């Protein structure tokens, strides 16, 4: 007979979303069981956000040395030690890991089971020889790399985001399949660390972002020496000794390493969801606005629900679930102010509607732009390659914003607040921004909304009329 555990909430998955639910629920007095079959911290800590940004940090440091001469500084990049870069990346992971470890959560009162979970009933599952019965379940099993059905791919030694951070030598020539955030970030990181890089993209680079702003990123990557091939289809892949040969309809590319970054696949197929009466398909577990599955006692959170797959989305989802599962409040998720960022140089950050979506939904819109080349702080630091683009209704309600440029991920946050709080453009235009800061691009873009009326001939006539009276 297996051990039977009865609990208030059972969380399946120890990634960002699952850990947030487990910690919050436990600290609020609920009895919590957390099940994780692999590494605590999930994809974000071990294979995603943390190692990728650490690798980019190392790459950008090398690039800063190369470009130091622009400022009159005599600096030379003598060498890049790939082993030390590897050690730095894993040192960052190890520094954060204690926040997500088993011992910390057990210290909070969470019972952690290390094993694979499998439902055996609508409110019962099995894991590591134990049977767990819970009042509420939360599925937070995340996603894994999607491996496309390309002829020969299974027979070559390819990399994914789960293995590329284990490299201790710089690839001679890295071929990347995919032009989304992972592919683009890894392309620039490895190029700046000394590798030749070719990116093969089936459609368009960063296709979910505003094409006007993507142009800035594309031109910088090409300036770095990255070969980008868009709208190409890979026909076959073969391994020839130490080289990987990728054949497309138009060309043959030969590289030392291959990174597959063609999207994500949800981790739901091993849970026996049918036994729990939970509806799902290959793309996601189906949920309602309250993040409940077809079994209302079971919630799903983060990547496994499909849509935008970000750590901060999973963290937001955790709050929705806590309100529903613990406090029985009918809280609904609203992703209208959910931002996303690609952390290359320049960064590209967005929130809300893009130009195409805004036109479809609202018809007549206003588009506000301000280039970084007109920002004094950007000029002082030689970072003028960038643009802010804001979408509003004709009456000034903010619908969306995108920024490409230095620190775009930081600068977008004022627009996240504005959209989330349904502010009008005048709130940003009247903001007092310290001088000189990059943040002034937001104020300047917002202020341009009023330029046509403020400096119109009608306004001039009215001012001249008033001046007649002294």
TrEMBL record:
A Pfam family annotated for this UniProt entry: Pyr_redox_2
PROSITE patterns membership: PYRIDINE_REDOX_1 (PS00076)
Disulfide bonds: 44-49
Keyword terms of this UniProt record: Disulfide bond, FAD, Flavoprotein, NAD, NADP, Nucleotide-binding, Oxidoreductase, Redox-active center
Keyword NADP applies: yes
Domain Pyridine nucleotide-disulphide oxidoreductase dimerisation: 339-445
Note on cofactor: Binds 1 FAD per subunit.
Family: Belongs to the class-I pyridine nucleotide-disulfide oxidoreductase family.
PANTHER family to which the protein is assigned, alphabetical: MERCURIC REDUCTASE, PYRIDINE NUCLEOTIDE-DISULFIDE OXIDOREDUCTASE RCLA-RELATED
Protein name: Dihydrolipoamide dehydrogenase
Organism of derivation: Terasakiella brassicae
């Amino acid at each position: 007979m297996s051990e039977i555990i009865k609990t208030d909430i059972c969380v399946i998955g120890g990634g960002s979303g699952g850990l947030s639910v487990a910690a919050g629920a436990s600290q609020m007095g609920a009895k919590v069981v957390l099940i994780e079959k692999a590494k605590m911290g999930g994809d974000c800590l071990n294979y995603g956000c943390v190692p990728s940004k650490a690798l980019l940090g190392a790459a950008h440091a090398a690039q800063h040395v190369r470009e130091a001469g622009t400022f009159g500084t005599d600096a030379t990049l003598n060498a890049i030690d790939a082993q030390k870069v590897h050690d730095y990346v894993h040192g960052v992971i190890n520094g954060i890991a204690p926040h997500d470890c088993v011992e910390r959560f057990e210290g909070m009162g969470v019972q952690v089971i290390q094993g694979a979970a499998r439902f055996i009933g609508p409110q019962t599952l099995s894991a590591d020889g134990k049977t767990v019965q819970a009042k509420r379940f939360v599925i937070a099993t995340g996603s894994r790399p999607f491996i496309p059905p390309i002829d020969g791919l299974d027979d070559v030694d390819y990399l994914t985001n789960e293995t590329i951070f284990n490299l201790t030598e710089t690839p001679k020539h890295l071929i990347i399949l995919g032009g989304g955030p992972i592919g683009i970030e890894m392309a620039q990181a490895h190029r700046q660390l000394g590798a030749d890089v070719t990116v093969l993209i089936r459609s368009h680079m960063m296709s979910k972002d505003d094409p006007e702003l993507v142009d800035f990123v594309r031109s910088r990557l090409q300036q770095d020496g990255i070969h980008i091939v868009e709208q190409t289809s890979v026909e076959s892949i073969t391994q020839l000794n130490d080289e990987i040969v990728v054949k497309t309809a138009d060309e043959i590319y030969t590289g030392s390493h291959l990174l597959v970054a063609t999207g994500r696949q949800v981790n739901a197929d091993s849970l026996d969801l049918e036994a729990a009466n939970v509806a799902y398909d290959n793309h996601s577990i189906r949920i309602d606005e309250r993040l409940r599955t077809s079994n209302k006692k079971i919630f799903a959170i983060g990547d496994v629900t499909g849509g935008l797959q970000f750590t901060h989305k999973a963290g937001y989802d955790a709050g929705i679930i806590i309100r529903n599962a613990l406090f029985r409040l009918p809280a609904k998720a609203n992703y209208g102010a959910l931002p996303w960022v690609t952390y290359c140089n320049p960064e590209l950050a967005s929130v809300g509607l893009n130009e195409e979506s805004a036109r479809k939904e609202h018809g007549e819109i206003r588009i506000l732009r301000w280039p970084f080349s007109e920002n004094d702080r950007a000029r002082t630091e030689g970072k003028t390659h960038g643009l802010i683009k804001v979408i509003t209704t004709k009456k000034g309600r903010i619908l969306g914003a995108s920024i490409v440029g230095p620190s775009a991920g930081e600068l977008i946050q004022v627009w996240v607040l504005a959209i989330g709080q349904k502010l009008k453009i005048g709130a940003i235009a009247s903001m007092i921004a310290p001088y000189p800061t990059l943040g002034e691009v937001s104020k300047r873009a917002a202020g341009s909304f009023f330029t046509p009326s403020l400096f119109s001939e009608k306004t001039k006539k009215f001012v001249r009329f008033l001046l007649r009276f002294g």
